[in-house]
Amino acid sequence: MTTPGGALARKVLLIEPDGLVRGTVASVCREMQIARVRQTISVASAEQWLKTGAPQAVLMSLVEGDAALDFLTRLRAGAFRCEADMPVVAMARVVDAALVARLKELDVRRLLLQPFRLHDVIHTLEQLWPAREALPA
Asked: How many Cβ atoms sit within 10 Å of the Cβ of residue 136?
């Protein structure tokens, strides 16, 4: 059972054009009680959702290239309802040194190279919210 402040209270915005990847990640996150995943197919649809929604993390494909980087730049500038410094995980098929440097500037927590194992995505999301250690009495 998950409490209101528990894992399923966490919202992750998943921006990924591949429906199979989106559905699989969302399903496994729900079943393992890691987070609720809001699925979008593009940066444009993510921006629409961010007018009313406020995730605690973003997991996004970089397939849209400059549009994805522009989105991240606006996110970090506080252009949306969500926290500007929330964790971001990027997914890409190909990267070069310039892209890695840009992602570091944008404070992307982790870069997953595709194809990746589902376990890698789940492990990454779990690490975004470290388990709370018991506080001394």
From this structure: 4
What is the rounded end-to-end Cα distance, in angstroms, of the chain?
A: 25
Q: Which amino acid is residue 110, in one-letter code?
A: R
Q: Please report which confidence band the pLDDT of residue 98 belongs to, taking 50, 70 and 90 as the band edges.
A: very high
Query: Can you give 20-84 as a three-state secondary structure string?
Result: HHHHHHHHHHHHCCCCEEEEECCHHHHHHHCCCCCCCEEEEECCCCHHHHHHHHHHHCCCCCCCC
Q: How many CB atoms lie within 10 A of CB 14?
A: 27
Residue 65 backbone class (left: φ over 0; alpha: ψ -120 to 50; beta: rest)? left
Can you name the residues that pair with 58 across neighbouring β-strands?
Answer: 13, 88
CB 103 within 8 A of CB 58: no
38-64 tens-digit pLDDT: 999 999 999 999 999 999 999 999 999
**pTM of the predicted model as reported, rounded to 2 decimal places:** 0.88
